[in-house]
Every structure is written in C-alpha cells, then in structure tokens.
Amino acid sequence: MLTLSGGSTVYLACGATDLRKSIDGLAAIVKYSFDLDVFSNSIFVFCNHNRNKLKILYWDHNGFWLYYRRLDSGQFKWPKQNSDHSAMAVSRRQLQWLLDGLALEQHKAHPEVLARIAV
C-alpha cells in the first residue's frame, strides 16, 4: 500500500508517458507541459502506453521520491482524455482506487461527506 505524507493534490498525467524518463524528465513534464509547480505539496502520477506501469513523483522537503509500480497481469483503469498534455486532478481516495485496479468513479462507494460546524 502506498502511503505518502502530505500531498494535498493528486494529478494524473493524461495519456501515455514514456516511463524511461526519470525524475528530471518527469519534473520537466510537470513544469512545462502542465504548467504546475513540481515542488508543491502535490503528487504526480504517470502511466505507460500499455497501462501496466505507473510512476509517481513527489517532492518531500529536500528531495524527490519516485515510486514505480508494475503489474504482473492486468491493466490500470487509466482515464481517457482528449489531450495527452494535460493533468487531471483527483482525490487521494481515487488514486487508491486506481492503484487497487478500480476505475476512478465508484458509483457504489459512499460519497464523501464534509463536516459542517453549526454556529
């Protein structure tokens, strides 16, 4: 199970990414293709063409973490987008669904409830 401290926003790189890229190559995609700050408190997820490998890039205080996941069989339910050069913001819960082999939209899951403080 993947556990990351922090990481306010999760971004999925739409389309396929050449996963031969390492930290610097993926960071360049975040900065120049997505126009996002790679040093922010965000998690960036990339998937290959066959949808059986993921790389996750995350900045932590003084260095990058690069997580790599390869499935022995099956594919990730990677979302289809019209543009290969855009990032899609998802929740951490949706990322966990994706890592578990589920689609981003789980219609049978309980909806998220935000607490309201009565004044």
Describe the secondary-structure layout:
Blueprint lengths: L8 E5 L9 H11 L8 E6 L5 E8 L2 E8 L16 E4 L1 H8 L20
Q: Could you walk me through the main structural features you see in this protein, from its secondary elements to its overall organization?
A:
This protein has one domain. Helix content is 16%, strand content 26%. It is an alpha+beta fold and 119 residues long. The mean pLDDT is 87. A five-stranded mixed β-sheet has the order 4-3-2-1-5.
What would the keywords be for this entry?
119 residues; alpha+beta; 2 helices; globular
Short characterization:
This protein has helices spanning 23-33, 92-99, and strands at 9-13, 42-47, 53-60, 63-70, 87-90. With 119 residues, it is of the alpha+beta class.
Tell me roughly what share of residues is in helical segments.
Answer: 10-25%
What string, H for helix and E for strand, traces the elements in order? EHEEEEH
SS class? alpha+beta
Report the strand count.
5
